[in-house]
């Protein structure tokens, strides 16, 4: 074989390997490499996560905290579970809401993300309103029907089994309680990891979630609201 052809093949193979590494690690954020890689990447990025995301306090209030408080009305002291809480975005938004007087349990599998969350909550003296716990989204360490509202934002697609993670969120939600999650909608190349509106609606309905609503939220995600079928007493903090 001519040496030029051999060189071309070697360059093509190296380029392909470099592309695969880039796609598996950076573009798809470790999703196809399993939970350990996903959490390892979040541990690495934890201190830069908020800067990368560029959260805006006004948006967090208007699009997360305020709609949650409106749906809970007249209650102001819910017991909230935030699955894959990350750096505490949802707990912080709720604590900053003037009427919030409940308690939020934030669970995440990344110790470093939780450490950032803990520091942010402590910096603003909200410790009495929030607890954090290391935990796996597909095996939540809580009894059934334990929370008034369960949230899981920008996280299902990172879990080893997103449908199981959703089922866990719903299991620990009380009948009549509120579910808030997200649907990834961007055009990144994530084969097999994105649900259509219809897919997600069917999955939720099969797990007894009613009053399902999709709202455009950010470039990469829709917000998805639902209510667990049935009725039960408000739990509160
Ligand atoms: C994109 S971040 C979202 C964090 C937060 N919900 C937010 O909206 O900013 C995804 C989070 O999911 C967590 N995560 C990924 N896989 C998980 C798993 N299997 N169990 C629990 N948390 C997980 C990561 O550690 C990370 O904090």
3D structure, described in words:
The protein is an alpha/beta fold and 237 residues long. The model has no long low-confidence stretch (mean pLDDT 95). The relative contact order is 0.13. The chain folds into two domains: 47 residues; 174 residues, 3-Layer(aba) Sandwich (Rossmann fold). Helix 4 packs across helix 5. The chain is globular, with a radius of gyration of 20 Å. The protein contains eight helices and seven strands; from the N terminus they run H-H-H-H-E-H-E-H-E-E-H-E-H-E-E. Bound molecules: S-adenosylmethionine. S-adenosylmethionine binds next to helix 2.
* C-alpha termini separation: 74 Å
Secondary-structure element sequence? HHHHEHEHEEHEHEE
Q: Using only CA atoms, what is the Rg? A: 20 Å
CATH topology of the largest domain: Rossmann fold
The whole-number mean of residue pLDDT values reads: 95
What fraction, in percent, of the residue positions are helical? 40-55%
Name the shape in a single word. Answer: globular
Physical arrangement of strands within the biggest beta sheet: 3-2-1-4-5-7-6
- The DSSP helix count reads 8
Strand content: 15-25%
CATH architecture of the largest domain: 3-Layer(aba) Sandwich
Low-confidence residue ranges: none
Total domains: 2
Largest sheet: 7 strands, mixed
CATH superfamily of the largest domain: Vaccinia Virus protein VP39
The CATH class of the largest domain is identified as Alpha Beta
Which ligands appear in the coordinates?
A: S-adenosylmethionine
The number of strands is 7
Q: Which structural category fits the helices and strands? A: alpha/beta
């Amino acid at each position: 074989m001519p040496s030029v052809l051999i060189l071309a093949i070697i360059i093509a193979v190296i380029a392909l390997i470099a592309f695969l590494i880039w796609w598996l690690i950076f573009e798809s954020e470790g999703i196809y490499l399993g939970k350990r890689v996903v959490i390892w990447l979040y541990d690495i990025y934890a201190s830069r996560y908020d800067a990368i995301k560029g959260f805006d306090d006004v948006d967090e209030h208007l699009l997360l905290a305020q709609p949650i408080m409106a749906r809970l009305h007249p209650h102001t002291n819910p017991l909230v579970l935030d699955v894959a809480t990350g750096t505490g975005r949802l707990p912080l938004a709720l604590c900053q809401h003037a009427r919030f007087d409940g308690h939020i349990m934030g669970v995440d599998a990344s110790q470093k993300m939780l450490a950032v969350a803990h520091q942010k909550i402590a910096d603003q003296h909200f410790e009495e309103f929030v607890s954090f716990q290391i935990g796996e989204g597909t095996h939540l360490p809580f009894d059934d029907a334990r929370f008034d509202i369960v949230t899981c934002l920008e996280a299902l697609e990172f879990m080893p089994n997103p449908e199981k993670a959703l089922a866990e969120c719903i299991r620990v939600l009380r009948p009549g309680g509120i579910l808030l999650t997200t649907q990834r909608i961007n055009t990144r190349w994530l084969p097999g990891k994105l649900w259509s509106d219809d897919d997600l609606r069917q999955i939720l309905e099969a797990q007894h979630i009613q009053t399902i609503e999709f709202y455009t939220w950010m470039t990469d995600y829709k917000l998805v609201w639902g209510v667990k079928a049935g009725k039960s007493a408000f739990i509160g903090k």
